[in-house]
């Protein structure tokens, strides 16, 4: 593994937390997966199981590798189960209050030497760090979705992050066979500073009736060679997460060009959060996704 980190805790067993647990276990780390309830942890483990099985059937992984990787992932129903780990990565809902509460519960019991990282898509690393007992050992390690496939990880230092924390994190990401890009601590960093306004603009394009869901996604898939149309990608990321990121950009940069589209707000208010809730710009409840507009 090439660095001092041997054990990794992950908080949040959703699509990102389960993906991070997956790649850490494949790379040989001992992983503890925590979420708000045992059911959520079970769902996360089932997702990992399914994704690894897919990798086996497509010849990307040996069945033995899958078995041994799975054996390295343990459910951690209590925060106390993370106490002795070397690195804890928070990958819970994109909401500053939720993340602050998690750190407040975790820090008093966490190994004082442990590095604490957040997978936040947009929030200030410096501000999150200042709510912990270890701003010098706090860092943004921002994975991309789907984690087992995407090669990039953004590393974001807070104002107090020490070099030793940064280097250990860089080595850790390298050991997962991912490429690091360094971003400064500004709202939404690099990828989402560019990607999310594009997605928000696609939603305005829909809102203003310039095109249907299908027309907009087809236009960007075939006209700009994007692997997914922007509305399909928004559903994939999660519309709640997209809205939170736009809100952070809007509040943090105080520029009206980041105003979240009211249609995005409406979908989130309806609980239509995309693939994870079965409905967003597409309805996923049937055999094939059907546009909702
Ligand atoms: C919001 C943030 O903070 C930052 C972000 O992450 S922004 C989002 C960034 N991600 C993107 O932009 C993704 C854009 N989409 C893509 O790249 C592709 O559509 C995709 C890789 C997701 C799927 O690719 P595809 O060619 O359409 O589908 P498919 O052939 O089924 O899948 C390709 C591989 O991805 C895997 N895959 C697809 N969806 C997956 C998922 N949800 N989880 C894990 N693996 C997945 C498949 O198993 C397959 O793996 P193998 O090659 O090992 O078999
Ligand atoms: N989706 C994406 O494409 C990307 C997201 N991210 C970031 O990763 C993080 C997670 O996103 P994602 O996985 O998509 O979100 P999901 O909604 O899929 O998962 C979040 C998980 O965190 C759980 N959770 C909520 N509160 C707590 C808590 N107090 N303690 C422990 N677990 C909790 C949620 O449980 P419940 O559902 O019960 O509330 C849920 O299982 C966010 O910060 C997001 O911005 C980063 C890169 C890409």
Account of the 3D structure:
- There is one protein chain.
- With 293 residues, the chain is of the alpha/beta class.
- Helices cover 44% and strands 14% of the residues.
- The chain contains 11 helices and 10 strands.
- The strands form 2 sheets. It has an 8-stranded mixed sheet with strand order 3-2-1-4-5-6-7-8.
- Strand 1 (7-11), helix 1 and strand 2 (30-34) form a beta-alpha-beta unit.
- The protein is globular.
Largest sheet: 8 strands, mixed
- Following the backbone from N to C, one meets helices and strands in this order, namely EHEHHEEHEHEEHEHHHHHEE
- Ions, cofactors and other bound molecules: acetoacetyl-coenzyme A, NADPH dihydro-nicotinamide-adenine-dinucleotide phosphate
Strand order of the largest sheet: 3-2-1-4-5-6-7-8
Structural class: alpha/beta
The counted number of beta strands is 10
Overall mean pLDDT: 97
Note poorly predicted spans.
none
Key structural traits:
about 290 residues; alpha/beta; two-stranded antiparallel sheet; 11 helices; globular; binds acetoacetyl-coenzyme A; binds NADPH dihydro-nicotinamide-adenine-dinucleotide phosphate; 3-OHacyl-CoA_DH; NAD; 3-hydroxybutyryl-CoA dehydrogenase
